[in-house]
Amino acid sequence: MLNNAGYLFERLLDKDPAIACNPPPHEHVAPQRRLLLRAALASTIPGAWLPAALAQPGERFPSRPIKLIVAFAPGTGSDALARIVATAMAPLLGQPLIVDNRAGAGGATGTEQGARAPADGYTLTLATTSTLLTHPALNPKARYRAERDFVPVAGLSRTAFVLVVADTPEAPRSLAELNERLARMGGSFGSPGVGTIGHLAAEYFLSRSGRRAVHVPYRGSGAALTDVAGGQLLFGCDTVVAALPLIRAARLRALFVTAQERLDTLSSVPTAAEAGMPQLALSAWWGLAAPAATSPAIVALLSDAVMKALASPEVRSQLASQQLEPMPLPSDAFGALIHSELPFWTEFVRQSGIRLEF
User: Fold this and answer.
1) pTM of this prediction exceeds 0.90
2) Which residue among 16, 218, 260, 295 is least crowded, i.e. fewest CB within 10 A of its CB?
3) Mind spelling out the 3-state secondary structure of 200-220?
4) Looking at per-residue confidence, does 323 or 249 come out higher?
């Protein structure tokens, strides 16, 4: 198997229309000259991904705008992240990245469209823990799979979950009090919807604590967290991004976060491990993915642009304002993360018995 640079040199020699390079001056190259040409290319090309792929012969990549599919509505946290990254990548690539919101079916609609797009580098998909890992496990009719239909481009960001109750005198003030309340009286919890990552995080908490609660699904985090704050629900579990405004407004009380360490924005809130549940170290992440057959040269070029964008102090400041932690993982490392987490979520969904039908 050739590495990215070796693959690039082979495709250059074969005049693959996916690679930007002038063809050799003669149509027929003797084997010895072919080897010399390959060595010359290897010594003169300054980086494995600097030559860019082509959509058409003679066209450098990217020679036109790139579409970034976001499988959620405008104004959501995923949408905000996509626009921050797209804006930062545009000057690095010399072409704009146009965010294309394709909401529906819990993120499956847009993600499937991304999987079926031409593998030419001009369509990327905002990949998330829920769209890439949990949704296919939840829905047997899902027509895409993470490791079959996508190639990872780069990791972007991650956020922890926070378990919250109403900030009222009668609400539990600690994890121990919440567990005691659930054991004695039961209760209900809200989520952004059936099968969402917030729903699964709450179910995982219940499975590990040995408690039960009635699930009340909503259409989005806002409505669910508002009813937790109003006391209609005992607790909720959602991303820090979603819950922080109500926590800061003293309407929600955070009992723990699922991060490995305390968060700067919630420094007084213990981690799950500090609260007595070390197995609840969960996070939700976002990244970029391309259709599975996309050229390694294109993937490497796009991944490099993401790494440079995430290193920008301006981008890091913008992510911090959204309570998002940068997760600058190049293609191989992002793929390793997906590969490591896929069995966990697949098995948990199987054990939970939760199913979706879209």
Assistant:
1) no
2) 260
3) HHHHHHHHHHCCCCEEEECCC
4) 249
